Amino acid sequence: MPRPTLLFTGPWADRPLEELVGSLAEWGYTGVELCCWGDHLEIQRALSESDYCQNKLDLLARHELTLNLISNHRVGQAIGDAVIDARHQALVPDYVWGNGEPLGVRQRAIEEMIATIRVAERLGVGLVAGFIGSPLASYVGGWPPPSRDTVESAFEQFAELWYPILDVCRETGIKFALEVHPGQLAYDLYTAQRLLEAVDHHSEFGFLLDPAHLHWQGIDPVAFIRQFPERIWHVHIKDAMLTLDGKSGLLGSFWPQGDARRGWQYRSPGHGGIDWQGFIRALHQIDYAGALAVDWSDPEMDRDFGAADACQFVKRLDFPTKPRPEPGAFRPV
């Protein structure tokens, strides 16, 4: 049976949800991953207005769309970053930013993430995805290097900040999926493993896998799938292409997407360098039964055209598998 094909609404947060959902049905999507910014999902309104959540569900239902999960990447970033500055003011709601005092922003971000979990419970979805930030982000370039104590302290701080959030997850039956991503404390296989260890493999903590964020670093997404078969709770479909010309490298770069000076670019699914056949076969092998959500980004393509094209690509990609033989069953040579 094909997996649900979703659109992550973050790249369309500038468009009212009521306007966007009509396009989603036309493009062929079966559901959405709602972002918690723009008017797509306003956390405090969802908590304070008795009909807010039901109105969102009714809107989606009128277009025969399901709500599979919600994502609050922007607020999560402010929880773990070592430096809170103007970049975060552009990410979080005004009431989370407050007067911008870093400790206050971090505490309000934690409260907002807990509120996000409560809203997920009201909406009847079992998964919240997002970022956690990183106190080690400035060290990833390699110089000046962190001490071993600095690294260990960062993972201990993550556990201290997130245990209260994960306790609410356990209380409500909601799981949290971190998107493994540069700029997060987990951005490759080793850091992802260390992060699990930091929270003692907490039953409510897992991963959102977007292969694009591994591919441009030179990391094999299939290796990640095989390393964490029980912890991959959600999958984004986004592509990337290395554009190395001998003048640029693989660092994240402060040049904007689309700038020819970058060493890599995001691409609409199927238009980049990811081995999608290998990726989907690996998901089949671990019996991943979750959704495939297009997280669309391509600086050189119209986004509405890209969203429609990506939906059809995902549906072609997600081929059905044949039943596996029983252990010990005869197999023809």
TrEMBL record:
<keyword id="KW-0413">Isomerase</keyword>
<dbReference type="InterPro" id="IPR050312">
    <property type="entry name" value="IolE/XylAMocC-like"/>
</dbReference>
<feature type="domain" description="Xylose isomerase-like TIM barrel">
    <location>
        <begin position="24"/>
        <end position="316"/>
    </location>
</feature>
<protein>
    <recommendedName>
        <fullName>Xylose isomerase-like TIM barrel domain-containing protein</fullName>
    </recommendedName>
</protein>
<dbReference type="InterPro" id="IPR036237">
    <property type="entry name" value="Xyl_isomerase-like_sf"/>
</dbReference>
<dbReference type="GO" id="GO:0016853">
    <property type="term" value="F:isomerase activity"/>
</dbReference>
<dbReference type="InterPro" id="IPR013022">
    <property type="entry name" value="Xyl_isomerase-like_TIM-brl"/>
</dbReference>
<dbReference type="Pfam" id="PF01261">
    <property type="entry name" value="AP_endonuc_2"/>
</dbReference>
